[in-house]
Specification:
Layout: E1 18-24, H1 25-37, H2 39-42, E2 48-50, E3 56-61, E4 75-79, E5 97-100, H3 111-130
Helix pairs in contact: 1-3
């Protein structure tokens, strides 16, 4: 039997279908630290993007996360990977780049781990700001 059809395999280096949780940079950086400190208990932090202005961080999470994401102060958008290639995002002045590139960290961040870390980060930031 001859098999015909189109090759649906992704291009080498192409991003798979993923969702992206974006948060203010200060909260995101705190969350990265929280996840890294608790990685043995909760799982590792996955790839993290930063915007060129340094105002926002984006955490790659599994597809479908956006369907139920409702954490105030953050947004989760669906992505089908189009236009994003893991090997191509190299930080340059004024451009989006990797804070934690895919090759340096584990798989995508678990959404529940991220939700807990962002909540803890928000509480830490609020406490620090109230001490001033």
């Amino acid at each position: 039997m001859e098999i015909t059809g189109t090759n649906t395999a992704p291009e080498p280096g192409a991003a798979p279908d993923l969702d992206l949780v974006t948060v203010p940079a200060r909260q995101g950086l705190e969350a990265v630290d929280i996840i890294r400190r608790s990685a043995g208990r909760s799982g590792p932090v996955g790839p993290v993007l930063h915007d060129g202005s340094g105002d926002t961080l984006g955490f790659l999470v599994p597809p479908g996360t956006a369907d139920a994401w409702d954490l105030p102060g953050s947004a989760c958008t669906q992505s089908d990977g189009r236009g994003m290639r893991f090997g191509d995002a190299v930080p340059t002045a004024g451009a989006t780049g990797w804070l934690l590139p895919p090759e340096a960290v584990g798989p995508v961040t678990d959404p529940e781990v991220l939700r807990a870390a962002l909540g803890e980060a928000a509480r830490l930031i609020e406490a620090a700001d109230n001490c001033r």
